[in-house]
Specification:
alpha/beta, eleven-stranded mixed β-sheet, four-stranded mixed β-sheet, 10 helices, about 35% helix, about 25% strand, globular
Length: about 325
């Protein structure tokens, strides 16, 4: 039985590498194109499987009945991910994402959700899905339809299974609903854009202040890209900040930041279900995301041995997390 269950999108990524991102109305030349498996759910599952091992991670999601689906299943099974929880939607294309990546690794993504948007609530009651959810030690929920998110959060609470939520693109069209549901996840992941959309804030300190004001009673992890990550303890307590990998000191360079947030979530969840505390999980997640940025593929997440060797090098370089009390609102 899988230790970790991931529920989220499965996409076919068409990545176009350009010198710089175009402005509206401008055409730029593409240097080269890659076509690989992606999607937040698939990426998180693969990142976790490379740490936890074969048959330790299961994926719940939806695909069409097409050639993309066949390639997706083959890629996931090659990584040791259990695919019994994937539904196949008749008459729908499998999801696809179109990505522009500039020479600094920054990107713009447009997604065609396809079958991902048709994952139905009734599918969670299928026997094979129920067994996966009831037998695991943790659940990672990404950008599945909102009704799926709500039901999974309830199921996790009912079975006392920790649930980690990275809501992503669900936030903008469902701000109030996500804000309400987010309080019930054990760990909530947000990047800077998502924090701005959910909290109406800009920057780490204002995000922490707003979280204090809202009284979130769970752990909130802010993914800060090149600045690393910060985790706010429940009830406006301690902030644990993990800096980004010092790539230059490690002799590495940024190639692409696509998928780094997914690798972060997968790495965090993997170390957490192995029995590590949240602080250790944060450190390893930040390191995993940093290594992913040095590789061109979306699923460039490291194997466990590589990740732990890198973390040891960081300690030798004096890499340390920073701890401080969360800022309070003025007045």
């Amino acid at each position: 039985m899988a230790s970790l269950v991931v529920c989220g999108a499965i996409n076919w990524d068409i990545s176009c590498f350009v010198k710089r991102l175009p402005v509206p109305g401008e055409e730029v030349t593409i240097k080269h194109v890659t076509r690989v498996s992606g999607g937040t759910g698939g990426n998180v599952a693969v990142a976790a499987a490379r740490i936890l091992g074969t048959k330790e991670v299961a994926l719940i999601g939806a695909l069409g009945r097409d050639e993309i689906a066949r390639q997706q299943i083959a890629a996931l099974e090659d990584e040791g991910v259990i695919t019994d929880g994937i539904d196949y939607i008749e008459g729908m294309e499998s999801g696809q994402a179109y990505i522009l990546i500039d020479q600094t690794g920054q990107n713009i993504i447009a997604s065609h959700l396809g079958a991902n948007a048709r994952l139905g609530l009734g599918y969670l009651s299928k026997e094979q899905v129920k067994q996966l959810l009831q037998g695991c030690r943790g659940i990672v929920l990404t950008d599945s339809p909102l009704e799926i998110a709500e039901e999974l959060i309830k199921l996790a609470k009912r079975h006392s299974v920790p649930l980690l939520w990275d809501p992503g693109i669900l936030i903008s069209p469902n701000r109030k609903a996500v804000q309400s549901l987010a309080r019930h996840a054990e760990v909530l992941f947000l990047n800077e854009t998502e924090a701005r959309a959910l909290l109406g804030t800009d920057g780490l300190n204002t995000s922490l202040q707003k979280l204090n004001e809202l009284g979130f009673g769970n752990h909130v992890v802010l993914k800060l890209g090149a600045q690393g990550a910060a985790m706010l303890e429940p009830d406006g307590g301690l902030v644990i900040e993990a800096p980004a990998l010092p790539l230059e000191e490690l002799g590495l360079n940024v190639v692409s930041t696509v998928g780094c947030g997914d690798v972060f979530a997968g790495g965090f969840a993997a170390y957490y279900v192995m029995g590590n505390d949240l602080r250790k999980s944060l450190i390893m997640a930040s390191a995993a995301a940093g290594l992913n940025a040095t590789r061109p593929e979306t699923r460039g997440s490291p194997e466990r041995a590589t990740l732990e060797a890198t973390e040891q090098r960081l300690r030798n370089l004096g890499f340390r997390v920073r701890e401080y009390r969360a800022p309070k609102t003025a007045g």
